[in-house]
Specification:
The complex is a heterodimer.
Chain A: E1 4-7, E2 10-13, E3 19-25, E4 31-38, E5 42-51, E6 54-57, E7 65-66, E8 76-78, E9 87-94, E10 104-106, E11 110-114
Parallel strand pairs in A: 2-11
Antiparallel strand pairs in A: 1-3, 3-8, 4-5, 4-9, 5-6, 7-8, 9-10, 9-11
Chain B: E1 5-7, E2 10-14, E3 19-24, E4 31-37, E5 43-50, E6 55-58, E7 61-66, E8 71-76, E9 85-92, E10 102-104, E11 108-113
Parallel strand pairs in B: 2-11
Antiparallel strand pairs in B: 1-3, 3-8, 4-5, 4-9, 6-7, 7-8, 9-10, 9-11
The chains are: A mainly beta, B mainly beta.
Chain lengths: 115, 114
């Protein structure tokens, strides 16, 4: 089954404790992206990747890191989480060769709470 | 980056009625997409309409695009309880600046009452 998976689905952590949210897709998509969703603000892009070893900042990259060592995986790293990073996070991927404006497939989301 | 704006923010109708929601955007686009999100879950792609198209249908969904007004509408006919969800429009940024990918609006929350 074609899908985007994220882990963990729920995470409660404390300020400053490094964490990684994994994202994996099995559709051979080149483009992958991370979003955060907050009430009243909609979805905002954090980072995106056009292909392996190619990543770039989205609209709200501060406090986040990403890597793209393999085509299928695009982990989101919070080196020192803070309470303002409490949010619902989504990973998404697009068709091979697709990037700007193509249909995106979303993961189920990771609800992160930073105390 | 520019952002689509959905209207209304929330809509409650009776099952069987039609639901219409609108999206306005600011800059030129290649295409506009609509997504559905059930509470707390991932977004699901519904339909994509290109800038040279004016109307598109998919099952009970009808999408229109007016590039002169920079607006789109999503019509759901014969609504069902299962249509209760938030609906987002998303546009690409044809201006070439800013982040690559889609820019989402804040969504319309649709409630279908039985």
């Amino acid at each position: 089954e074609a899908q985007v998976t994220q882990n963990p689905r729920y995470l409660i952590t404390v300020t400053g404790k490094k964490l990684t949210v994994t994202c994996s897709q099995n559709m051979n998509h080149e483009y992958m992206s991370w979003y955060r969703q907050d009430p009243g603000l909609g979805l905002r892009q954090i980072y995106y990747s056009m292909n392996v070893e190619v990543t770039d900042k989205g609209d709200v990259p501060e406090g986040y890191k990403v890597s793209r060592k393999e085509k299928r995986n695009f982990p989101l790293i919070l080196e020192s989480p803070s309470p303002n990073q409490t949010s619902l996070y989504f990973c998404a991927s697009s068709y091979p060769g697709g990037a700007r404006g193509d249909t995106q497939y979303f993961g189920p989301g990771t609800r992160l709470t930073v105390l | 980056s520019q952002q689509g704006e959905e209207d209304p923010q929330a809509l409650s109708i009776q099952e069987g009625e039609n639901a219409t929601m609108n999206c306005s955007y600011k800059t030129s686009i290649n295409n506009l997409q609509w997504y559905r999100q059930n509470s707390g879950r991932g977004l699901v792609h519904l339909i994509l309409i290109r800038s040279n198209e004016r109307e598109k249908h998919s099952g009970r969904l009808r999408v229109t695009l007016d590039t002169s007004k920079k607006s789109s509408s999503l019509l759901i006919t014969a609504s069902r309880a299962a249509d209760t969800a938030s609906y987002f429009c998303a546009t690409d940024d044809y201006s070439g600046g800013g982040a690559d990918g889609l820019t989402f609006g804040k969504g319309t929350h649709l409630i279908i009452q039985p």
